[in-house]
Each structure stands twice: as structure tokens, then as C-alpha cells.
Amino acid sequence: MEQLLESENPHLVLLDLALPGTDAIKLLESIPALADVPVIFISGYGRDQLVASALEACAEDYIVKPFSPTELVARIHTALRWQTGPETDSPSDPYVLGDLVIDYAERRANVAGSPMQLTDPECRFLRELPVNAGGVLTHENLFQRVWGRVTPGTRGRCARW
Asked: What distance in Å separates the CA atoms of residue 28 and residue 59, rounded to the nearest whole number?
């Protein structure tokens, strides 16, 4: 699944809870690339505890079968709306401060020569701080710019970041 996510670069993932041979909730928690996209679970099970477990694992939404195509499309549009927050232009040159080097184009950072892969939210966060250096950036403004929302915890996705 990780290779598929890398090659296709989806904007959203629909994931059936009843995957053969695996626990879909654990799969969601174990694949770092899924932190960058909203995940909507589809399931024939609507038990409160199962729904709560999926949402606590940072699923964007949970829809119980049978459902109407209209409802599914509406939930997809809602999930994608969260992904389209205000974007700022990334600096074209890498940011360098002491042992820290941030390459925005490659979404990578090096600290004292040790490379780190960055998720999309991590990259946006590391972009906002240097871009706004010397200015005032409130936590509400930072959450809006990085996660597309004003306050933390309104989408439940930050646990995987």
C-alpha cells in the first residue's frame, strides 16, 4: 500500500475496515504517508467502540454501509475542504540555520548531517516559522496556515503527526 500511495499521490483514501488479513485501523496508524491525506473508513459495522477507535486512529470520517452515493460524495467534499487551507509560497532556496538545513522542494531536513523525511504538515510547519521570522505569528494563525483550521483537535488527525 505504501508504494501505491507514493506512486499515485492520492488526495483522499477510502479504506474498507474489513481488509483481508489485516487490521485496517492498525494499517492506518502504521503507514506514515497516510498522515498526509484524509482517510475515510467504510464499514458494515457501526458499533460505537469501533467507530471511536477508527476516529481516534485519525480517520477523517467513518461511514456505515449501506450508504448513498450522495452522502459519500458529500463526506469526501467535506474531508477535502480541510485539505485546502491557505497556502503560502515555499522559499526557493533551502533554509539554513546552524546544523539545520530545510529543503522545501524535496520536503527534507538535515540536522547535523542526519537526514529526516518530512510529512506534509511537518514541512508546512517548518516553512511557516522561517518565512515569518521576526514577525508575530499567533498559534491560531499557525494552525490555520499549517492544518487549515483555527484550533487544534478539530479534525482529530494530529496524533499521527
From this structure: 8
